[in-house]
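REQUEST FORM: STRUCTURE PREDICTION
Request ID: SP-0412
Submitted by: Lab K.M.
Chain count: 1
Length (residues): 510
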Amino acid sequence: MDSFTRYSRKIRMTLIKAVTLICFFCLIYIPKESTSTAISDGTGYYTVILNEHVLGAMNSEEEAREALVIARGRISAEEGTLVYMNPDLSVTQEEMVFGQRMSVDDMADAMYDVLEQSVINFDKQDAYTIRINDYTVTLATKEEIVELVEGVKANYDTENEFQVRLTGNADAESSEFGIEIVKTDVGGSGASKVLQFEDGEYVVEANADTIFEDGTLAMAFSESISVTPMEVNAERISSVEEALAEITKETEEKTIYTVQAGDTLSQIASRYNLSTTQLCDLNEGLTENGIIGIGDEIIVTVPTPELSVLVFEEMTYEEAYKAEVQYIDDDTMYQGQYSEVQAGTEGYREVVAVVQYENGTEVSRDIIKETLLVESTPRILRRGTQTPPTYIKPLAGGVLTSGFGYRWGTNHNGVDWGVPVGTAVKASSGGVVIRSGWFSGYGICVDIQHPNGTMTRYAHLSKTLVSVGQKVSQGEQIARSGNTGNSTGPHLHFEIRVGGTPVNPFNYLQ
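STATUS: Completed
RESULT:
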């Protein structure tokens, strides 16, 4: 009997273990399989967070966004007016084995509770938004718009000669319109001059009936300005004082300056209220002792307000001037060579110019009338048109063994290339042979005179292949390298002399 009892207990324990294993399998394996299938089908376990509140999980990101649309729609319908919400929705897919997911309706309810806390009711009010390029500011009335622009203009219109005017469909309640500055009294000089906007620039034109009179000719804006009527929340409307402070506040932005003739780094820096050190810091590779050339582009920092005012000032003054240089082409001279035929004289003239200022800084000056007082005679130059000679390395290969300059207590007048005896030596440039033979410490040597007055020398040769008076072309073989004269080993010594003075050949070799 005891044996039977023990056997029954053993069977019960086995059954309990089996049932436990089956349950564990169902809890672990079956949900895992269904989750994996759901993820592969485009659904899965997505955690939803709204405005930093973790709301739960859903099958997909699309369901979460659908729930947000429903929640926002309910709030807008209940408010009965335009509301502002700034929902920060985050939907993240999780690698979950199992977990409960919310329906779209349940998630919409949860989102509704969160969004209610961030709703801002709009107290709708008619106003006007001014757009200056990408910058915007909103004012309550058209009168305030005029007052704002008048405040900007006042810094440059000290005589109050100009007035602000709304343009376009300013009388319509729903149409965009613009702003311009016009002269209060359009008579006098203003009536006979025309300010036109062409190819992105303002151009002043005068005609035969123009009456020239010094003073402010016109005012305009650098930026594109438009005004749009709209209904906005009262909190978005600025006062004139706030708007004026904002659009006249100067912010620094990088601008490119193109180097002109006569410019120096210190002059450019001073022009933009910078130190030379600051200017160099803005331009990588530029140093205070560096060389700049005409046409180089340099980054400068220019303080710029949101709204920039252009002022066109007419002024009359006398100035010295020089007539344009005249040139006579000469094919017996090389390009870059000039000789003066006539010195020229300075003249004097009275000019009427229109000077353009941007925010008080001169940006251009155009002469619209000129009266000669003393005529200038032009400087006349003869200029060369012949292509100057070029210089090539006089041999192939070789190892540079000595450069140009101070060496061993004396000046080395050329460069040396170590090469085996007998290496072909070529003319660096075309010319006439003026030396061919032994020349003191140079050993066997060839000198070639070139048409532009320069001379090249080839020394320590083993053999010369040309004679004095012979014309040679660039690249033509003239000798073989050697180890003659005061030489420490087989090599070619090469010089270029300008006006009889040795120069560094590496400054000329192509």
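NOTES: The chain is about 20% helix and 40% strand.
Reviewed by: T.R.
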